[in-house]
Amino acid sequence: MAKLAGSAGVPVLGDKSLDFYRDPVGFCQQKIDKHRGRVFQCRVLNRATVFVCSVRAMRELLCEKSNTFQKDPTDLMTNMYGDTVVTTNGEEAYLLRLSLTTLFTGSCLKSSNDYITSVCERHLKDLSLSGRPPCLYSAFKRLGTELVLGLFLNVRAEEQPQLFQEIVQLCTQHWHGLISAPVNVKVPLWSSGFSNALDARDRLMDIIKDKLKNDTQGFVGSLGSLPLPDSSSASQHLLLFISALIPKALASLLTSFTLALSGNEQKHRRRAAEDPDYLRRVLLEVQRLWPPFIGGRRIADEDSTLAGFHVPKDYGVIYISHSVHRDPEVFEQPDHFLPERWSGRNAGQEHFLCSFGNGPRSCIGTKLTDVFLKEACMYLLKNCDWCLDPPSQDLEYKWLPVSRPAHPPAISFTRLDAAGCDGSDTS
Ligand code: HEM
To answer: What sections of the protein cross the membrane (predicted)?
Structure first.
């Protein structure tokens, strides 16, 4: 059993949280280079923490040893969202997942199809007609927000604009409390952002409880009739589902998809429009290179190992999706956008990704996300063409709270029934 590279540092003074939050990807790359390995330790959130940046260690953490590496019930998520499946362990988590999964699969998911199509059409038509949207990510986030509030809460922007706006504002306020806390590692509960967030949470909970009591239709109706552990469970999960997190993650993937296909190669866009399997490979490559969330966190319940390194009990463990997805052991030319890898060497290796987690605690919204993404991407591919304008721009990414370009890229859209981007296919 090998000793972990790096140092867990002394409490408080040895903490590297700020360095990590400033530039998580640069931070990990620097450590990988320094230690010449993809598993190392340092101190974050004032806890000795193992960083997992290899596919092998990620699979052990999230799959084979998922009973040893547990969710942290004292995680900030619990403060902000209450007791939800996200921070629960053992049998309780298993049963909750079993119940909730029925809402995101099968006939429940099917019944969302028409709404997903109509929201995508309305938003993306406006986007493509606007020609040059000032911020693509913000436009996609509005689409994601309408999707989430309409689907999960039966609140539709065009039917109840005031209530819709109020909820959007409360979700933003709630979210700002969540992200203000990690920076104030020492006194998270004292920051003013945090107390504003708790006020927003209370008001959101009132709206949610009212919906659960009075709406029998749709997702809220189905959630209300699920067997859940206690009376507050349905409302706490709804708070989680309508949080700003999900629209941000959806917008992140849609932005990365648009950028990945924004070169002057019209033939790639045409191929993706006509060949669903090629679109699937493009989307796999998008989530590999630009996973919306930086990763996830666990706590070691007992002494164990990851990729042969000793991990003591009570150590934190963080998997970093960006680095796992660029592990050269598994992905040749890891920094290149190569959709073909998913029909070549990496065919059938989707289980080496962790954009949606992995193993028994992976995301329960992947099917819904897949349906939504395919609908949105297909609409764009079939109805418009787009390109970076000017063609050379700074496309550097930032990674927190979700991955997206650090500076909004300038993109030109044209309807396919009008002239092409520059009128010709130069590929
Ligand atoms: C682009 C969209 C999404 C991304 C990138 C995403 C990503 C993730 C990731 C990485 C995890 C695992 C976290 C960990 O290992 O600690 C996760 C878990 C989870 N996701 Fe998603 N998610 C997305 C959409 C959704 C949607 C639409 C829902 C449902 C409304 C959802 C509900 C959940 C839940 C409840 C968990 C916790 C599962 C558990 O702890 O057992 N997600 N998601």
So the answer is: none
